[in-house]
Amino acid sequence: MKTNLNLTLTRLRNENNILTNLSSFINLRIVFIVTINLLTIFITMHASTTIYAESGIAKYKVGDLDFYCIQDAAGEMNNSIFAGADREILKKYTQNGKSKSSVSTFVIKRNKKSILIDTGNGNALLDNLAAAGIKTDEIGDILLTHTHGDHVSGLFNGTKPNFPNANVWLTADELKFWQASNNALVQKTIKSYGELKIITPDEKTQIVLPEITAIDATGHTPGHVAFLVESKGQKIFVAGDLLHSASLQFPHPEISSVYDNNPKQAADIRKKLLTRTVKEKWIFTSAHIPFPGFINLETDGDGFKIISVTKNNQPNNQPNNPTKNTTKNNDNTNADNVEKSFYDFTVNDIDGNEFPLRKLKGKKILVVNIASKCGLTPQYKDLQELYETQKNENFIIIAFPANDFAKQEPGTNAEIKDFCNKNYNVTFPIMTKISVTGNNIHPIYKWLTEKKYNGVADAPVQWNFQKFLIDENGKWIKSIPPKTKPTKNIL
Ligand SMILES: [Zn+2]
Questions:
Q1: Domain region containing 475
Q2: Does the annotation count 374 as an active-site position?
Q3: Which of 245, 275, 319, 314 has the alpha carbon at shortest distance from 90?
Q4: In a shared domain, residues 267 and 381
Q5: Over the stretch 348-393, which tens digit does the pLDDT of each residue have?
């Protein structure tokens, strides 16, 4: 499957924001029951970028437990996240500058109170849970490996929790890290789950189920934790964001990604836990390895090598195993909730308050993705001037901070707001930081950049300060390149 999706992982903290051949299973007899490759959608964005959303459900038996990998989104990880890594190594272990990836979550299904590990971005998760017969109200506990956006955004739909009966578990350090966010959406998400449960990452601590232990994996984030799920001597290791590229970081665990808060610590813990995985014969899985990603590893020099992946294995003793393959209708766009008209979207302003775009009806609108550390950042001045001279002419600017290009908008929403006020006296509305490209592209930007939604043109965002002009009736007029100064001439 050819794709070149740049899997940009939205980080709530930095957004506030801010991710096969089978041999024996040695002592483990993880029985593959069913893999349902549900859906492949190809969305052509522009000549060099294709996004696909492949949803999947895979179910395994771990001892007595029904263990599912539920995919939230599929994509590829761009090598740009391995800034600083040796070019030859990157070339050897990745293809066309990318490696296959996923945003996966995991479920331990029980009769009552099933357990969910991580929640993805809230793309295909809810649909795939439903397709797997897992109801959102039967999730009794949610274990978070950490609080980056692609692990926690599926918790909350903007108004209420997606899992009304769940306790949310995370480490104390991670809660602190999450709460440091002044993002209103984060605060709402936290609040919506009541008192959070604290995980002590200590292997004597058994949380939620006697079968689950939390293992410290600090480095990727300050409170990053992994989970070892065990039943009847079978063990599966759910490693969170211990790595972001299976093809690259198994052979080269010393390479950290730009998403690792503490790259050195992340590399050390990666080596340590992969060594243990081999030694203790755990099945390895994690959020961003290719779906369904249930891997047997062995050591290989200073790194590790995949010896098998439970992808197509049939249980040896069950020739008539009830494997089912189902295909969703092609019209299912579950990773792809794009509204029909510009006015149908509701976004959040920089304080986290809802900002329905329908309130801009009758105005000409300039939409711009902004960044505070870009060579084009002085365009704030031009934007503010344009706004001041035109705001009485039924004109408005709305700006979306985005960290997609060279990480030039790394701050929190509060920091961005402060920066705009202090340096440019910005008075046009600024929204909550989002992604304007890649796998986590916000639906409003799908609409802005894809002809199939806006009805006029494909116009992917090239860099910070690309502008889009929308007319008084919500019709897409044009896209204006980043370098073009926002003066009256562009209107
Ligand atoms: Zn992460």
A1: 342-490
A2: yes
A3: 245
A4: no
A5: 888 877 788 988 999 999 999 999 999 999 999 999 999 999 998 8
